[in-house]
Amino acid sequence: LAVTFDFQRPCTFREVVLISRSKRLSVRIEVAAAATGPWQAAYDRARADCPDTQFHRLMLAAPATGRHLRLTVQAEGITWLDEVLAWGEAEVTADMPEAYRPVVSPPIVAEIAFSSIPGIAKTSFSDARYWDWLREIGNAAVQPAVWSVPIGFGLMVAGSLVSRSKVPANVGRTMVRLHTPERVRVDRRF
CA-CA distances (angstroms) from residue 151 to 12, 42, 130? Predict the structure, then answer.
């Protein structure tokens, strides 16, 4: 997998961070002043030298300067590249202000389905729906007892009221057995 980034200005790169679902990656980082090259190698690592991790912090041996940054990444099987962070300094002038907007915005992956009960498709929900729900409940997610205890108590009362006519015949005997002291002689057989 080869990816080229155009930063629209000269930059000095010192570090690149890769986040990837592919854990063991071979990585080559190259920098160039123009999209056509020439490309200067800034970092090279073989897959055998890669730690088994999803977070790859790649410190360049020496600062590399250029407008374009090219990453060549290879994993065993499918190569995933989820996020790339480039660290360093960028030239800021009146012609190239600090507020930078990419020319081409990357596609946003959405609608990844998760099942709340594995194997039952009707319980699936999208990742976007989950993050929307999490934003909506906000602080309630930090302290779940604040809302889950009253809901649980309410469900218990509602269940009791709905099934009031379905009280088992031996419930009186069970309640006496549970609430009388052991020293009182009561038939304790089920």
Answer: 56, 58, 21
